Structures are given as structure tokens and as C-alpha cells.
Amino acid sequence: MQKSLNRVQEAFLRLVHNRAYSHAYNALKQMHPADLAQLLPYLQEREQQWFVETLLKTRKLGGVISELDENKVLEFLELVPQEEFVKVLEEINADDAADLIAGLPEGQRQEIFERLSGSQKKAVGKLLGYAPDTAGGIMSPEFVSMEQTLTVGEAIDQLRAKASGEKEEIYNIYICDADDQLVGVVSFRDLVLSPPDKTLQDIMERNPVAVRPHANQELVADMIARYNLLSVPVIDENHRLIGRITVDDAIDVLKEEATEDIYHLGNLAQEDHISTPVWTSAKPRALWLLINLGTAVLAAATISLFSETISRFVILAALMPIVSGMGGNAGTQSLTVVVRGLALGEVDWSLALKVIWKELAVGLFNGVIIGAVIGVLTYLWYHNLTLAMVMVLAMVGNLIIAALAGAFIPLLLRKLRQDPALASSIFVTTATDVGGFLLFLGLSTIFIKLIIS
Q1: Which of 184, 70, 79 is CA-nearest to residue 133?
Q2: E strands, 268-323, where?
Q3: Which PANTHER family match (predicted)?
């Protein structure tokens, strides 16, 4: 069993594998959809069919589908009859239904959408009109709004009546005027704790934080995190309330963006997963590996410039990978810090000089420490003081190059409106390889007579 599974999940799988289906059925009824969604890869084909049928009987299918990772949804839906899938889409939140439909193949997408009915079809249709990475693409059109003239007692009575039909949690009550324009917000806590004769106008927070439907989803998630919000309203160009984005949506976005940045740092496609077909994984990886090959050839060409020096003192060939390798590691450290700062909005181009100077200082400090250590080791190894000093100077220089490249390259890519995580690692590695070889072999060439004497 993988460590990611808890004891309840492991016990459930043992029951299924042992065909103790009646006990497994009882266990499944008590489990959370998020836990059930993790189990699909561990089930055999016949077990998967039983799993789906049981989810249908216990009315948990919609919750499980909503919790599945995007790369698992299509695989799972192959087990679900289409009419049952349509029923699920009718029952779940409109934003979750829109996400599921958007992930279907184009032909199937239209067919499934047309089979929806009533208000759900209308709500899903509106959401599908927004780009998936925008506030409109992740918002829920389900919210509770009231007029500001209502008293707290009247609002609670209305809320009690409305809550029975809500599919999502109620965190805030949005206060709108006669034209449905957002004028304030009242938290559920403030509503419950306020005297019943006070009006909503008296207790509401005026001019609440709100976003437009075309705002980038990452900016919205950052806003929710920055202001510690449970939900944020979405308003149109006329300031009318059209939806809300909840904190669980923001968590999903931050998880998605973090995954995307990690994949970009490794030059991988976001669709690349453990279960992805070989060709789908290999094709984008091969492209970046070919680009990497080009930079490796550049590093090799740099070494070839000093072939005569290396032939005169072959030990240089054993030492030069140490300089380039340490530079690559140091560059990755700087790159990680800066890319993270850019992703969280802590760094922008206006702070570029400050960031670069800081990383240069770190590079110089580490260069002196690492250079001194490798210098002493080189001297103890080869009893050659000049060679040891060349190692020290090359190491200090390359760690400074690494710090400069790791800080400047992602900042430059962001300035050029490119994803700083996408290609930074290749450029940084190239800079440290070429820079390290140039410094070490160049200094060795200058002092070759002293080295071999």
C-alpha cells in the first residue's frame, strides 16, 4: 500500500480484494468522497465496476467524480453509463459540472451539455463561456444575496428557507441594492451574533473585496489568501453580483499553479502523470531534451577550445565537472527562491536590482566557503598550490555567475511576459556549465606553466 492511503482506505481495499462486498458496502457508505476518489487505481476491472455501481446506489458518485484529479476523470467516466453521468451533472454544483464537461472530448462535450435541463443547463452554459483559468471559469453562480433594508431576524428567516436548496456552504450573505449591485457583505458569524432588530445595512461591511469574471484565477486565489477570506464575490462591469469563489476553489487553484510551476521547472507538460501513455509523455519531454542537447553541445564546444590545455595536464578533466556541477546546484537554489517569489507576488521587476544584489552576495559568500574547501582538498590530493588556487577562483566566480543567472533569468522572463518557471532551468544550467568551464579552463590555460612545473 502507498503511504498516501490511510488505514480506513487500506481496510476497504482488503474487503474488496477479498470479495467481502457486503462489508465493503457498509464501509463505503461511511467514507468521504475524497478518500474514495483515491482508490480507483488500486481496483481491478471487475472491482471498479462494483465500485461504480455501489457509488450510484449510495448517491456518492457525484462527490467522488468532483474529487478526482483531472487526469483520472475521463478514465473513470468510461465506467459510468452516460445517463447516470448526466444525472450526476444535474445534482452537483454548477461550477463542478462545468469543469467536468469542459474536460470531455469536444464531440462528447456538446452532447452531454445538451442533455442537461433547466437552471443547471443555463448556469453551466454561462460558466463555460469563461476561460477556465479566470475567475468566471472557477466561480459558483450559487450564492445568497439580500436587500440591505432587511432586519437580522428577517434575514435569518430567509436564510433558513434558502439554505435548504443550497448545494454549497454559506460563508457570507451578499447585500445588493434594487439594481442587484453589490454594496456590502455580512459574514454568517456577524449575522448570527447581531441583535435581531438591527438592519443588514447596520452590520454589513461596505465596499467589500470583489473581482471581475475575467481576472486571472491565480490572482484571485492570492487575494483570498492575503485577506484571509472564506469567499470573494464576482461582479460584472455594472457591479452586479454574478457569482462567488470560495476558499476551497482557491486551494485547488494554488495546488494547480504549484504543480504547473514544478512541472515547468522540470520542462514537463502538465498532462504528464504516472498513468499517462508513453507517447503522450515522451513527445514533450523529447522536445526539451533536444533543446537541452543543444546547450550541452555548447558546453562541449567550450571545453574543446581548451583541448590543448587539457592534453598538457589531464587532471583538469577530472576537476572541471566539480566547478560546473556546484554552479548548477547554486543556480537552482537562486532560481527556486526567485521563481517562488514571483509566483507569490513577493517579487517583481521593480525589485530586480535588490534581488540580484542579494543573490550575488549569497553567491560570493558561498563561493568563498566552497572554494576554500575544494582548494584545500585539491592541494591535499595533488600537492599543487597553483591548481588549488585556480579551483578556488573558478569556484567563487562560477557561484557568482550561478547567483546572477538564477536571479536575473526568471525576472527577465517575467518582464517579457513569459512563464519564469518554463525555461529558466535550461538557461541557468547553460550559464553555469559554460561559465564554469570558461573560468576553470581559462585560468588553467593562463597558469598552465606554473601548474605543470
Answers
A1: 70
A2: none
A3: MAGNESIUM TRANSPORTER MGTE
- From 217, 213, 208, select the one nearest 235 (Cα to Cα): 213
Q: Report the distance separating Cα 36 and Cα 155, nearest Å.
A: 38
Q: What is the pLDDT of residues 353-391, one digit of tens each?
A: 999 999 999 999 999 999 999 999 999 999 999 999 999
What's the Rg (C-alpha) of the chain? Answer: 30
* Structural contact between residues 134 and 126, judged by C-beta atoms closer than 8 angstroms: no
Question: Looking at residue 101, which CATH number applies to its domain?
Answer: 1.25.60.10
- Please answer whether residues 225 and 254 qualify as being in contact, where contact means their C-beta atoms are separated by less than 8 angstroms: yes
User: Is residue 1 one of the residues assigned to a domain?
Assistant: no
pLDDT digits (tens, 9 = 90+) for 38-61: 898 889 988 999 999 999 999 898
Q: How far is CA 449 from the centre of its chain?
A: 54
Residue 31: give the domain boundaries: 7-138
Neighbours of 395 (CB within 10 A): 29
The answer, yes or no, to whether residue 267 has pLDDT greater than 70, is no
Please count the CA atoms within 13 angstroms of the CA of 366 that sit on its side-chain side: 20
272 within some domain: no
Question: Vertex 335, ends 332 and 341: CA angle to 5°?
Answer: 145
The CA-based angle 366-372-374, given to 5 degrees, is: 100
Over residues 424-438, mean pLDDT? 91
| 414 and 366 co-located in one domain | yes
SS3 243: strand
Residue type, 62: G
